[in-house]
Amino acid sequence: MTFNIPVVPANMQTIIDEKLAIWLAQNGYFYIMHRFDEDDRLDFVKRMHSLGLFASISVGVKPKEYQLIDDLAAQNLVPEYITIDIAHGHAQTVIDMLKYIKQKLSGVFLIAGNVGTPEGVRELENAGADATKVGIGPGKACITKIKTGFGTGGWQLAAVRLCAKAASKPIIADGGIRTNGDIAKSVRFGASMCMIGSLFAGHDETPGEIIEEDGKKYKVYFGSASQYQKGEYKNVEGKKLLLPYKGHIVDTLREMHEDLQSSISYAGGKTLAALRKVDYVIVKNSIFNGDRY
């Protein structure tokens, strides 16, 4: 399948729900449903197919996830896309799940992650991944690097570049996208798609209530490994943020589309492929540092 832009909202509970998934699928955008409503995933696939839409779900690697795959196979329900979604995807548990899904569900497009090294990409591809998510903790609501010392936070673009060089299949750059220009940069260094959380948070269509503080509107945004997601303070690697209310998501998607068109124009081309051919420079400080005065 092809989609309007190389962007997918993060499969997080504060970003995507069924209503938004339906809208995205109906309007030519990719989506990945989160895995936190575990018991509803099989019925979600049924509902999407009944609407004539593609189904894209997330799974983990715990034993009960194998039962979901068995149940899907038993009912001949094959989602078009399945994402194996764990924080450290370069693991034997992910490799085992990849092989199991490939054996049970013929024809499904399998995305696996997350990884941050070329070795991780190669191993997941060899195990059956059709695409790999690259990014360990670079997200706005993620504190993995601070809590553990591990991750691609601060050098996410370099990780995408290294992983894309090793990849023979598509790479999804997951996290670290703070501006629309970062999408073009990710494509330049090899990403086929970008997964984005914070830029999509705060819209009418994203889950959660609008909160008013001091006359300003906000929406809650929290990481998948935060205590708010887990329900307890244990192995916490995410935080909660209040992000400004942004209105309708269609306006943000339109702006992303327009900005990408401008990026392609600056690259001297007519398609995204033109971005892959441009030269680049490495700067020590953020471009925003010059806007402080």
TrEMBL record:
Cross-referenced Pfam families: IMPDH (PF00478)
EC identifiers of the protein: 1.7.1.7
GO molecular function: GMP reductase activity; oxidoreductase activity, acting on the CH-OH group of donors, NAD or NADP as acceptor
GO cellular component, one term: cytosol
InterPro entries found in the cross-reference section: Aldolase_TIM, GMP_reductase, GuaC_type_2, IMP_DH/GMP_Rdtase_CS, IMP_DH_GMPRt
Chemical reaction(s) catalysed: IMP + NH4(+) + NADP(+) = GMP + NADPH + 2 H(+)
Top-level taxon: Bacteria
Catalytic machinery residues: C142 (thioimidate intermediate)
Described function: Catalyzes the irreversible NADPH-dependent deamination of GMP to IMP. It functions in the conversion of nucleobase, nucleoside and nucleotide derivatives of G to A nucleotides, and in maintaining the intracellular balance of A and G nucleotides.
NCBIfam families per the UniProt record, alphabetical: GMP_reduct_2, PRK05458.1
Protein name from the UniProt record: GMP reductase
Organism field: Ligilactobacillus agilis DSM 20509
